[in-house]
Amino acid sequence: MPTTWKERLKTQMPPDWSEEIDVFENQMILRKQDKLDEKVFAETRLRRGAYGQRYDNGQRHDGIRTRELSFPTSTTKGAETEWDAPGMQRIKFPFGGMNPEQLELLADLAEEYADGIIHVTTRQAIQYHFVHIEDVPDLMRRLASLDITTREACGNSVRNVTACPLAGVCRGESFDTTAYANAMFEYFLGHDDVQDFGRKFKPAFSGCEHEACGLVKMHDIGYLAQTRLIDGQVKRGFRLYVGGGLGTIPQQAKVLAEFVSEEEFLPVTQAVCRVFARLGEKKNRNRARIKFLVEQLGIEEFTRLVVEERKTIPDDPRWLEYLNELDRFTETPSLNAKALAQKPDLEGFDSWFETNTYKQKQAGYYVVTVNLPLGDLSTEQAYKLADIARKYTPDSLRTTVEQNIVLRWVTEADLPNVYQELKEAALAKPGAGTIVDITSCPGTDTCKLGIAASRGLAGELSTRLAAKNGSLNKAIKDLRIKVSGCFNSCGGHHIADIGFFGNSRKRNNRTVPHFQVVLGGTRKDNAGSYGMAVGAIPSKNVPDFLDTITGRYAAERLENENFKDWVNRLGKLELKKVLDAYTEVPIYETAPQFYSDWGDVREFSVGDIGVGECAGEVVSLFSLSIAQAEGTAFEALIALDEKRLLEADEKAYKAMLQAARSLVLSKNLDVGEDPNTIVSEFDKHFVQTELFFDKYAKAKFAQYLSKRHEQGSQAASEDKTRTLIEEAHLFIEAAHACDARLGASPVGVSA
Amino acid sequence: MNSPHRIKIKFFYQDDVPSAEQFLPLFHRWIQEDRLAEHLLLDVADYKHVPNSLATLLVAHEADLAFDTEGGQAGFSYIRKRAWPEGSDSLDNRLEFSLSQALNAVEALELEDLPKLDLESLELRFLDRLASPETQEDIDTIIEATQKVISQLYGTKDINICQLKEDKRRAFGLSIKVKRPCEEALAA
Predict the structure, then answer these.
(1) Above 0.90 for ipTM, yes or no?
(2) Which of B31, B53, B130 faces A116 most closely, judged by CB atoms?
(3) pLDDT tens, B10-54?
(4) Residue range(s) occupied by CATH 3.30.413.10 in chain A
(5) Rounded to whole angstroms, how far apart are CA atoms A681 and A697?
């Protein structure tokens, strides 16, 4: 039996993904040998979804003092990031789609490599916490064996592609966006044009204009499904938004084009990516998102540049190929629709049915929302949920931006059984899509940037609200709360009716956890408007404040007046009065609880805030690409040691190609992967120009590549293979030297 | 068969069960007091809102310790995950090491003002599916090794070990019933 996951899963992973993971594993070895720069390695791991976690700088305040965490390995995996420190692993799920087998695997991995919890993020991805970096390659291999990737789940690239979880079954959608979201995911995964961004790039798809599920207006790029009658035919396309985002400076996305056809949406997106990569800010991380570029240029100029760029991009058959596969994403029910004969006499069913089910456009079928507290799911629950999905749906599960999971295509007649089975797994919590269904980012639980305990607060509010759910006024029930641990808005506080984000205040000579209150945001209309910050209150006063503000809203609202309008009508002065009643902090001696955060018994401190990795590292395209070449050259050495000579020869050659390509990318982003093109472009830009020439060795190193390229693959002796590997290493060194001469890279790979 | 890289040992509460909430200040205090020798204690995670989970978790570099509600039965778990001592690659050595470390953690817990664990009843799991036994022979080997280690640690041969018959997706596990009072074992 194979004794490693690499061996066991060898034939089950997509070959290029498998190779990618091997390269990463080798980069880990190089980093441990201090042969790979820590910043390059940091960005490399971020682009594989391996993120830092709180206290990974080796320090933690235990409530009394700051303790040094003396990890055994002295290597770092990034600036001030200890190798052994537990990290977070993010996993991409385009449009939130997953099947039961994948969910079961997530459960296995949570137990074996993390803390037993599967966490659904606010962007439909999955996260594990407390993962050791050494476990990451096997974790990735097991995911890859079921077509799941972590690639570019973090870092300065295209992040998880989100889409409405009701896509395909929504009563109000223009069309099902699933296949399009997937096409975008597949096209841009690892694409050269998305490797040189100054910051991350988040896409979202929505099937309709007025609901909240897609939230396209708060994304870097957003696709709103539209149809047009063109030449008598109904054509599909998208209204294309760019430059939206939350964070410290929230921006509503601007319309780049009213209608981009399905044939054009990938190349136009590619053009947007190229403009962003070329002109976007790279040095000032606080102004590097695309929203700042759009603001700086103006949407008209930005659009003009995109239109011009589009004309220069060479045709790619994949722009249209995906259209032949649209049916691949059309779900068909596994069970025939059947109406519910009579209302079941089940405790709790009615309230669950009211909030946790959605009638699909397909008659007789429902979407069931599994309301996950704080987005968390245990291993045991995951297995049970997988069973339920298999039994009652066509293996159709999707995560949501509300940190829940939906089951689609449940027949009406099966709803009581589904409810019962979910209940047995403690997964039938009612109140999905209501005020008790609170979303939250990780905050101080695990995030390096967290200031206050967003999950602690969200949990507390949810518990209190659930306890009185039955007596809550409908107007209050319909409100939504979102909590972030800091101003970066990963919890999405700007688009909630009532949002909170963590901060701190000095009170009575001590640091006290606070939350800034943000009121009147709009989720509907695809995140139609952002809320207004009205002031900060101590963390421990938030529940009482919430009672007051919701109580007044219920009592004072005009008929059909929504929360945003009520807040605007109330006015800032009056809101301040409401808030002022909750700003007082008693002295420590009388109320020490004010000096601790929710769910954390330690006395509050902001000393644990670290350097975030959301912004990734500023690493040049060359540095990242050459790091791949280094990894491949290392693989060649391993193959040689294991007497796999033909493979060693191929790897050494590939390492040289990758190194050459690293340089060529600065001259021609469209070089692609074809060896002939790479060698020819390398020759044109770096050999004929003598840019690659060493002062003394002249063309010698360049000839290593051209010689092997012309000779082709051949079974050589061990000595000859070893020579080729040495040549590959020298070629890589020459590429570094060339890059340094050209002054292209801010960060390089150490020898 | 590989030796597992992650081994979980769970001791159960019987009639008197503490709450997950009680373990939050306790685990934070253990960090402050550096309460567990040979462990670099890192952080506390609160998952009490998740049913059937490691509800309150003390994360160390070498192991996780938890107030554990998995399987619907409350207990205290020690999960050895890395930093195995040199020369402990064999199954026997790993079992012995993780069990002795688990008992050390239990000993620390017994000093706290909490309901007491039933130390005669425990569960052992290999949280490593690459090391899951493939054949009955493998299972017999594991049971034999476990029997040997438990006998040594508890000082009795009156032990009943059987494979947990449950959902096949769950990590391989054994149910262990020891007849000897564990106060004696802990004192030994």
Answers:
(1) yes
(2) B53
(3) 999 998 999 999 999 999 999 999 999 999 999 999 999 999 999
(4) 170-329, 439-595
(5) 21
